[in-house]
Amino acid sequence: MSVAALTHDDRYRVMRFIVLCHRWVGGIAGLLLAVLGLSGALLVHKDLWTVVSHKGDAVVQSGQDVGRLVAQVMTETGKHPQMIAFASPSFGVDRVAYAGGAGAYLDQTGQLLTSWSSDWARPELWLVTLHRYLFMRPAGETVVGIAGFIGLALVILGCIAWWRTRQTFEFRLWPKRMSRPAIIRQHRDLGVVMTPVLLLSFITGVLMVFRPLGGLALGPGAAQAIDHSLRPPHFQSVKIGHDLDWQAMMETAREKFPQAEFRSLALPRKGSGLITIRMRQPSEWLPNGRTMLWFAADTGQLVEARDATLMPVQARAFNDIFPLHTGKVGGIIYKLLMTLSGLTLALLGFLATWTFWFAGGFKPASKKKPQKA
Asked: Does the keyword Transmembrane belong to this entry (predicted)?
């Protein structure tokens, strides 16, 4: 049965049900969505507000210099880190991460700038954990993904509910008054204006959390292409060698991909026997790149090198989901759009929570039916 075939009373009941669902779901999940929106808006500019000296230094990318830094980190600290995130054009210091949340920032000569024993000591680190895991690693990521689905549903239901009030549209960034009717009117009108960027934020967030959905969204064969492109090569579990030539590994990586930036080095985890180097080529949107090299942990010999630019188009599209979500592509205009998306979600979520719980929003709506036109 089409919508046009519904009676006036039936359309009223359907619309009333949609409004009721939107109100209750928004009232219950609004605070969670607001926290995700605000934290996301802050993380878009993380490199800018992170406090550490030398972050404006020019990036050194020669294989010899980066290899010397890695060798110094591996020998001077007394224990191997889990990962080294190399300096980038937007953040000119290296970050070393150890087990248990400990870490340090180093300048590009290897000099210690600051260190910490827990992610809680650095706001840029615990904010990532909040936004991605709600401080419940790793299970919290699923909760965040479900929140993304809820956000999608709220945007769609909100647009349907707005349609009947479209003739009273008036764009406002802030409610005219802090009364429930004024907040509701500002909520629906601001929400419909920001629908495109809110949908982009929610869809990309959901696809990152639930990778199989990314395979479905990108068409037939996408799941297999993505899995094949991202799966590391098979290699037996071995211990890390005592005298590995780290500089030779980095120089090998530079020879394989002369135009790429060094982005990170990770030591074996979860039974793997591979040292992983990630690089980013100029055509890649993904900030950390998906150009990968794997070296045997016991000998330092190259096992496989994988060029991200030669991946199937569906795998390359999947790699672009993260930069679209985080505003890492498209310059300052797109970054500001994603910031506005996060701030809008925060405002809508906080005010929806307040009106629902403290301004009578949870009370049943009046059952008086509108008169026929």
From this structure: yes
Evaluate if residue 173 carries a pLDDT over 50: yes
Q: How far apart are CA 46 and CA 173, in angstroms?
A: 24
**Beta strands, E only, the chain:** 83-85, 94-97, 103-106, 112-116, 261-266, 274-280, 291-296, 302-306
Within 10 angstroms of residue 250's Cβ, the number of other Cβ atoms is 25
Sheet with 94-97, strands from edge to edge, namely 112-116, 103-106, 94-97, 83-85, 261-266, 274-280, 291-296, 302-306
Q: What is the pLDDT of residue 373?
A: 38
* Nearest by Cα to 201 from 43, 356, 352: 43
CA–CA distance, 53 with 93 (Å, rounded to integer) = 8
Q: Measuring CA to CA, how many Å separate 312 from each of 97, 227, 308, 317?
A: 32, 11, 9, 9
Q: Does the structure show a pLDDT above 90 at 366?
A: no
Mean pLDDT of the chain: 91
DSSP category for residue 278: E
The DSSP bridge pattern shows strands 291-296 and 274-280 to be antiparallel
Q: Among 175, 186, 155, which Cα is nearest to 37's?
A: 155
**CA 27 from chain center: how many Å?**
24
DSSP bridge pairs for 276: 266, 294
**How does DSSP classify residue 114?**
E
Q: How far is CA 177 from CA 126, 172, 185, in A?
A: 35, 11, 10
For 254-287, write each residue's pLDDT tens digit.
999 999 999 999 999 878 899 999 999 999 999 9
Q: State whether residue 81 is helix, strand or coil.
A: coil
Give the CA angle between residues 23, 26, 32 to the nearest 5°: 165
pLDDT at 126 over 60: yes
What proportion of the chain, given as a percentage, has pLDDT over 90? 77
